[in-house]
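I am still learning, so would you mind making up any protein sequence you like and the tokens describing how it folds?
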Amino acid sequence: MPSRAESAAIGADAAIEAALRLLRHRDRSAAQIDQELEAREVGADAREDALEALRRTGLVDDNRFAERRAATLAARGAGDAFIRYDLEAAGMAPDVVDDALAGLEGEHERARRIVERRGASPKTARYLAGKGFSTDVVHAAIARAGDEPLG
């Protein structure tokens, strides 16, 4: 029968292996990995040991995750509110979310490009609002295009 220390080591090794499988196809936040390991009934100590090892090796980096995820969502036409919600749901701290948003092209510029592509219409305004752009940004982007006033 393994000692308690050996059992803990086995748990941490198994947790690291499970975490590495989670990271195989895409980057994840520490909180996402922790949730997945918890769902697999990995103990709290083993989860923390595994996450610490992954942080030390650079395989888990919440700042990098937030920056990449924010850039991906922005490239897909998401507004700041949508990006903030997504990052917070992934377990990012508010300061990490703020830093990730600060590194993006401005929300006004992203909205302007969408309006240029889709046209200035109430339908485009609804689309932008649904993608997490603020009301002020939506009105400014539509008004700047000047095709059709919003009703």
About this structure: The chain has three domains: 4-60, 63-102, 107-145. Residues 1-9, 147-151 have pLDDT under 50 and may be disordered. Residues 4-23 form the longest helix (20 residues).
